[in-house]
Records
---
Amino acid sequence: MSARAAALVAALLACSFALASGAGIAPFSTAKPGGDLPAGWRALALPRVPAPVFSLVEDSGVTVLRSRAAAAAGTVTHALDALPARHPVLAWRWKVDRVLARANLAEKSGDDFAARVYVFFDVPVETLSFGARVRSLLARTVWGEELPTAAICYVWDNRHAPGTSAWNPYTDRVRTVVLRSASPGDWAQEARDLEADFRAAFGAQWPGPVPRVTGIAIGNDTDQTGEAATAWFGDFALGARR
């Protein structure tokens, strides 16, 4: 397993521990700037990779999470136990100070983003294809039984149009979806239908009900390109369709 693939597995694993009893996501806005992360959030550092600097900061009178990555990679994670049928929409706001000039989601060497938001799903292993099942069982032997088996990664890209989607170059268990491209500087509001996005990414492999969401992970990474970028994240919330 490559270092990057191992890092993806570690990110998945981080959201499988201590599952929350409901769908609530602790808000950053109620915390103090410069203080500790709200309960439920924790930083995940990757082996042998410098971590971004995560800080709670004030932005227009509201506390938000800032992630500064300089040739670094890592996430802040929040465990969940949520059924998309009950809470299908994930909403948040984010912004970046720049995009990464040398990033390219189609290549392993360019798998960096100014901002990422992972959503992890617990697809039953027995429903996977034979090859995927073998890989998942091997990974769970190493990393634990609660390792999630599928993820969508929403990104702020540098070159691909919003709506572009592709498999992560390291694993076919992570689907990358471009939400924003270029135009850094301003806050952008997102609201994603997790049921619809899961079916678009994994529906051919998993035609049944969309499985539970086991967690989210947010941050940025620039370790492949060696560049620097800062991302800010506001509160996240799971809710119903309007």
---
Amino acid sequence: MNKVQQATAFQAFKTTIPVMFGYVPIGMAYGFLLVKTGLPWYWAPLMCIIIFAGAAQFLALSLFAQQKSIAEMALAVFLINSRHMVYGISLLERFSLFKWAKPYLIYGLTDETYALLTTVDPPEGCDRERFDFLITLFNQSYWTLGSTLGALLGSVIMWDAPGLDFALTALFIVLLVEQVKTLKRPGPFLAAAAGVLMFNLLGFPGQALTGGIVLGSASCFFMVKMVKSGVKK
């Protein structure tokens, strides 16, 4: 490794330190919850390597525990991560100049990685492709490390951590509040809640998640048409 590559690696690591302080503890909570859900500890690093989807991984634990179908899991994860399509579109021009790292950069894109890639410039004279690759790799490593440590601790600690599973609920409450504050249109969220309530009242609790997602998504499309036509909410 020459001096330029060393400087690039050091700058990428320095840039990702704030992400490390966030990913490691949250990853540990995820790994701990994973083994308490009944899954073996090695699922934590496997999911972090194969899926690497943060909030969707937390959601997967809840869906596993509720024995939801693969179709419901896939639909829920797709909708949660659909925002990454917007991120990807904004990076098309930048990634089009890359060669060997492009597939991994597309796969490893997260909210935090996107924020760093679009705000931090690489050191002068270094390869931008390598710089972006290292930022993405470091961030995934932090998440994988934290999750694995949490899973290993959870497999040897008998404490069931009562209340820790509320981290998932709290996470999505925060996301919900932020989405409502940003959109200022609670219609889709109310439609999703109504769908879940309706399916439960009709005696189909197993399909409540899918029903809520479908109604919430349909409400989004309806809301877009209303906005384009100038109709007030």
